[in-house]
Amino acid sequence: KNQVEQSPQSLIILEGKNCTLQCNYTVSPFSNLRWYKQDTGRGPVSLTIMTFSENTKSNGRYTATLDADTKQSSLHITASQLSDSASYICVVSAQTSYDKVIFGPGTSLSVIP
Amino acid sequence: DGGITQSPKYLFRKEGQNVTLSCEQNLNHDAMYWYRQDPGQGLRLIYYSQIVNDFQKGDIAEGYSVSREKKESFPLTVTSAQKNPTAFYLCASSINRASTDTQYFGPGTRLTVL
After folding, report:
1. Residue A5 forms contact with B (CB below 8 Å)
2. How many Cβ atoms sit within 10 Å of the Cβ of residue A107?
3. Tens digit of pLDDT for each residue in B51-107?
4. B45 to chain A, minimum CA–CA distance in Å?
5. Is it the case that residue A99 has pLDDT exceeding 70?
6. b/e map A46-60, b = 16+ CB within 10 Å
7. How far is CA A12 from CA A85, A91, A109, B32, B38, in A?
8. Which one, of A8, A27, A17, lies nearest residue A92 by Cα?
9. How far apart are CA B91 and CA B93, in angstroms?
10. What confidence tens digit (pLDDT) does each residue in B36-51 have?
11. How far apart, in whole angstroms, are the C-alpha atoms of residue A109 and residue A8?
12. What is the DSSP letter of A104?
C-alpha cells in the first residue's frame, strides 16, 4: 500500500534555531518527492522537488535530502524565523500508468520568540 | 494578480443542501484538481481534470460532482449524498497531469455543515 508518514506530528522551536522534519514512504515505483509549506488557512506552496537521482535540494534556508534506498527524506530548516510557522507536507509520486500523488499528514511547526 | 482563486473562503450549509465551490485560474494550466483536507490526514483527491470537458474521479469522489466547461474554471458541487462534508477544500492547477509539474493551490474554502 502506498503510504507517506511524517514525524514529528508537531514541533515547537525557538526563533533562530535549526530543525529537521522527517518523511518515510512506501510508494512504489518511486517517481519524485516534494516538500510543501502550508500556512494556516492557506493552500500549500511547493518548496522543493527531488527525483530518484537527487540526494539534496536547497531553497534558501530550506534543505531537503532524499535516500531512495531507505525511502526516507528530511527537510532541514536553518536559522528559523517566525514566518516558518506552518505545516510542512511531504508528497511522494508513484510512476504508474498515471502519476499517483500521495500526500503525507504534515508536520506542524511553531517558531516562538 | 495571477494565480488560482477560490470562493467563498467560508461556507455554511444545512444538511440536505447542495453547495458549489468556485475555483478559477488564470495560469493557462490544462490540469485542475480538487482535494479535501481533514485534520491529521493528508490531502485526498476528489476529482481531477486534464483538459476541458474531461474529468476523472479521484480517491473519494462519492457525493461530489464537477464540471470543466472552460479551461479557467473547475467548480465542485458537494451534494447531499456526501455524508461528512465538513472539511477544508483545496483547488489546484498544473501545466499538465505529470507529477513533476508543480501544483499551484488556491487559498481554500472551509465548508461547515450545520
Report:
1. no
2. 21
3. 999 999 999 999 999 999 999 999 999 998 888 999 999 999 999 877 778 899 999
4. 9
5. no
6. bbbbbeeeeeebeee
7. 9, 22, 6, 35, 22
8. A27
9. 7
10. 999 888 899 999 999 9
11. 9
12. -
Per-residue pLDDT for A19 more than 90?
yes
Helix (H, G, I), strand (E, B) or coil at B96: coil
Query: Which residue among A32, A89, A105 sits closest to B99, beta carbon to beta carbon?
Result: A32
Sign of CA dihedral B51, B56, B61, B65: positive
Q: Is the pLDDT of residue A58 over 80?
A: yes
CB A58 within 8 A of CB A42: no
- Residue B70 has, within 13 A of its CA and on its CB side, a CA count of 8
B41 touches chain A (CB under 8 A): yes
A18 Cβ contact list (under 8 Å, min separation 6): A76, A77, A78, A79, A80
Residue with cell 444545512: B14
Q: How many CA atoms lie within 13 A of A12 on its CB side?
A: 2
Confidence at A1, pLDDT banded by 50, 70, 90: confident
Closest by alpha carbon to A73, among A44, A28, A33? Answer: A33
Establish if A43 touches chain B: CB-CB under 8 angstroms: yes
